[in-house]
Amino acid sequence: MSEYNRRRFLQHSGSMVLLSAASGMAALPRQAFAQDTVKLGLLHSLSGTIAIAEASLVDAEKLAIEEINAAGGVMGRKIEPVVEDGASENAVFAEKARKLLDRDKVAAIVGCYTSASRKALLPVLSRSKGLLYYPTYYEGQEQDARVFYPSQEATQSVIAAVEWMAREKGKTFFLVGSDYIYPRTCNKIAKPAIAHMGAKVVGEEYAPLGHTEFSSIINKIKAAKPECIYSTVVGGSNVAFYKQLRAAGLDGTRVVLLSTVVSENEIEGIGKDNAAGYYACMGYFQSLQNPANEKFVKAFKAKYGQDRVIGDPMEVAYNSVHLWKLGVEKAGSFDPDKVIAASAGLTLEAPEGTVRVHEKNHHVWKKVRVGRARPDGQFDIVWESADLIEPNPFPKL
């Protein structure tokens, strides 16, 4: 595990800056900021089992804030980040969101990683009329009026992933995931796509979040003799899962493993040797070659170190700050309701390429790719969708 993933950090903003409204000017709802700043909440797990995947998103968000501030800010105001630790606990996420919205008076929140943590925020967002940008791939089945979903929902990645495996690697599948809503919904989406390709599922197993003993599941995989393993095991569990798979001889040569949740950042924790040869399906890989990504990677490494890597959720976290900025500028206001109304159809030239906010469902049109992990922890891209894929968060299951 990298030194970064071992350290825990948390920056507290202890003071509240109050808005002084000029005579005759209506106060902006809920937001409070100094005349030259606006607060943006960054809410992620900096500790606990999900921190291995989530903590680094804050770095990408801070880079976006730094770039925006250097270019003059948002509507003339510099962004002041307010960072909070969700500690991999849903109740803590809700508590911290209340603090950010009600006490710190942030204009919006970029945050969460698991679907359970996001769902814990929904009542808080509704009550406080907040706005969340959720930068992680997820299972779909949601369209909240106060949330934007800039990463891929499951139909954009899961269907592409299993169809690619069925075309290129084999017709028998074993499905394995952590035991919560994302993996279970992904597998509901995967099964008809697998059947449509003339393939079949020969096994399906789930492990509790944070689980580290996979021998029983691996024995079931070996007994079922699949050609393909589709994995939605998340967080620190992947360190154990990948090591134990390889120790059991499932090293990606005869049996192909593809994950829709393991990016370059998770590989740093899993170990490059343990991940090499396995596949992932993502919207973004650090190895993408285009001017926007080359600029992004160069800036990130210059700020945080040449040994740091960038995974899909980190890039979407970076995009989320820029999408919020575009929405504010189009609305001409920091008011969340006005930003929400103005964001439909927004287009961003991101490091991954063009992304476009859907006109109706708060998700984004985007491309997805399949990559094969290399011994250096990066991915060789072996497939890319021809066009932007429309989000479909409510498929028939």
TrEMBL record:
The gene is amiC_7. Pfam families: Peripla_BP_5 (PF13433). This is Aliphatic amidase expression-regulating protein. The lineage of its organism: Bacteria, Pseudomonadati, Pseudomonadota, Betaproteobacteria, Burkholderiales. It comes from the Bacteria. SUPFAM superfamilies: Periplasmic binding protein-like I. Residues 1-34 form the signal peptide. GO terms for biological process: amino acid transport. Keywords: Signal. InterPro entries: ABC_urea-bd_UrtA, Leu_Ile_Val-bd, Peripla_BP_I, TAT_signal. The keyword Lyase does not apply. PROSITE patterns: TAT.
